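Handout, page 2. Input:
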Amino acid sequence: MTIDELIQQIEETERLIDVYRNANEVIVGTEDQIYSRRGLINRTVLRAAEIGDTIVNILERRLAAMRAEREKFGTEDHGERR
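Output:
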């Protein structure tokens, strides 16, 4: 992954954290390899109060890991973008 791709993922994750913090409902579903053309299967709608904090916590951990990875890029190529 390039530094530009990583920065893009960081920005998208920051956006998603805001989305889930402000959501009223979260739709959760599964996707099966065989039936993936039909989209999500086994869907359920949960109130954000039931699952929103869990999703935000997961995204925040991912964001921290991506930021640490970004710091490694800065160390490896002395601040130059790849």
